[in-house]
Design goal:
- The protein is about 45% helix and about 15% strand.
- By secondary structure, it is an alpha/beta fold.
- The chain folds into two domains: about 200 residues, NAD(P)-binding Rossmann-like Domain (Rossmann fold), CATH 3.40.50.720; about 90 residues, UDP-galactose 4-epimerase, domain 1 (Alpha-Beta Complex).
- Helix 4 packs parallel to helix 5.
- The protein starts with a strand and ends in a 6-residue tail after the last helix.
- The chain binds nicotinamide-adenine-dinucleotide and 2'deoxy-thymidine-5'-diphospho-alpha-D-glucose.
- The site of nicotinamide-adenine-dinucleotide (NAD) has 30 residues, from helix 1, helix 4, strand 5 and strand 7.
């Protein structure tokens, strides 16, 4: 296939691009704004095999130029502002990229009748105490991040209903694995544990997330692209759910750190208690997650331990300022 992958220099997008190039021989163009979370280094294993365009999805001219006169078979959109805490502190950029940017891509896809796949999140359903969300559960986002992703999903399905655009949505649960920016729970806790820093756990630490190894999500998205029906939404969740405190405790064990590093800090406003997805619809297309959390987590800790070249420049740059601003007071600095 010939693909335009937007946001392909980020954590999940770069994993997806690697899988498509290595396992499918796809011809891939990556379009990415290279925000704080996007890095060309994430694509270094495939850089000679892909085309890279630096640009923003909300810029219609860049999109038109990138698609050119020989458009791809499909657009897959990963590009987004993705961190819930940042969306609470500074929400506007989330609407621009996640909602408006998606709209610009949909319009470009409509003009050229391209297949379109939107990468979305379980957070659009909100929190669930027991049971699991199906694709027809009501949407009830809690944060500016999840609200902007919900807006994008609704635009995608509206383009199918209104214009017949062959568009689909794939909603993933919490991803983890190599190359995840260390603002997110798992890489943050791994790097802090390896460095002997505090491990800031929000609230009572008993919020539950459903963990999905990033390669499993990449393959799930590929499955939807190949076998999904236009206009449909597909959930893609991990095999194991876990309370945050259990995740942090396992990381401490794997990193050989001191449990007294755990520090309970003020809770995130509007913090969703539990996410859970029913993935029968995607299983019906032949997909299932292969990686158990215990194995994927151990692989992920090893990857961060062995790849300081990847995270050292992040930890010493703008991330430090973000970290001090976000956690400084909570950790009594
Ligand atoms: P990430 O933050 O690692 O990467 C986002 C990428 O988008 C970066 O490369 C960034 O440079 C790029 N980007 C941001 N704004 C852009 C813009 N305006 N134009 C072009 N590129 C832009 O995110 P991720 O964790 O890899 O998430 C990728 C997608 O998957 C997102 O849409 C996210 O909502 C979704 N998702 C993430 C998870 C998760 O657990 N991380 C789970 C389910 C769904
Ligand atoms: O569920 C899918 C979503 O997962 C994606 O759509 C988002 O892009 C992604 O960021 C992620 O959102 P979460 O808010 O669930 O992930 P985060 O890693 O920020 O937090 C996971 C849990 O850990 C959550 O309950 C909050 C808690 N947490 C997080 C951080 C950063 C802490 O207790 N301490 C922390 O320092």
């Amino acid at each position: 296939m010939k693909l335009l992958v937007c946001g392909g220099a980020g954590f999940i997008g770069s994993t997806f691009v690697g899988l498509r190039v290595r396992e499918h021989g796809d011809e891939v163009t990556v379009l990415d704004a290279l925000t704080y979370a996007g890095r060309q280094e994430n694509l270094r294993d495939v850089e000679s095999e892909i085309r890279f365009v630096h640009g923003q999805i909300e810029d219609p001219e860049v999109i038109a130029e990138t698609l050119g006169s020989d458009p791809p078979d499909a657009i897959v959109n990963f590009a987004a502002e993705t961190h819930v805490d940042r969306s609470i502190a500074d929400p506007y950029a989330f609407s621009v990229t996640n909602a408006l940017g998606t709209h610009v891509l949909l319009e470009a896809a409509r003009q050229r009748a391209l297949r379109y796949l939107q990468v979305s999140t379980d957070e659009v359903y909100g929190s669930i105490e027991t049971g699991s969300f199906t694709e027809s559960s009501p949407l009830a986002p809690s944060s500016p991040y999840s609200a902007s992703k919900t807006g994008a999903d609704l635009l995608v399905t509206s383009y199918f209903h209104t214009y017949g655009l062959p568009a689909m949505v794939c909603r993933g649960s919490n991803n983890y694995g190599p190359r995840q920016y260390p603002e997110k729970l798992i890489p943050l806790m791994i790097l802090n544990a390896l460095a002997g820093d505090h491990l800031p756990v929000y609230g009572d630490g008993r919020n539950v997330r459903n963990w999905l190894f990033v390669e499993d999500f990449g393959r799930g998205i590929g499955h939807v692209l190949a076998h999904g029906r236009p206009g449909e939404v597909y959930n893609c969740g991990g095999p194991d759910e876990c309370e945050n405190i259990e995740v942090v405790t396992r990381i401490i064990e794997l990193a050989g750190a001191d449990p007294s590093l755990i520090e309970y800090v003020t809770d995130r406003p509007g913090h969703d208690r539990r996410y859970s997805l029913s993935c029968e619809k995607l299983a019906g297309l032949g997909w299932r997650a292969r990686t158990r959390f215990i194995d994927g987590l151990s692989q992920t800790v090893d990857w961060y331990r062995d790849n300081a070249w990847w995270w050292e420049p992040i930890r010493s740059g703008a991330y430090r300022e973000y970290y001090e601003r976000h956690y400084g007071r909570a950790l009594g600095r």
